[in-house]
Amino acid sequence: MVTVNGHETTGVVGQSITEFLTKRDAPLANIVVERNGEIVHRADFDHTLVEKNDKLELISFVGGG
């Protein structure tokens, strides 16, 4: 089980962060991913895998005025 923004999620273990975000239609250019309390650098998205019991926080930035 993986927790994403406080919600339990299944079927994502083994996916890279990039694959996980792409399947969620997340805005890759404007998102910060925190994994188990640590920021995942964008350069590491392709080779950082989601593991069992991970806690992910996804923060996206939206412009406006």
UniProtKB/TrEMBL annotation:
Name the domain of life.
Bacteria
Q: Which InterPro entries match?
A: Beta-grasp_dom_sf (IPR012675), Mopterin_synth/thiamin_S_b (IPR016155), Thi_S (IPR010035), ThiS/MoaD-like (IPR003749)
Spell out the protein name for this chain.
Answer: Thiamine biosynthesis protein ThiS
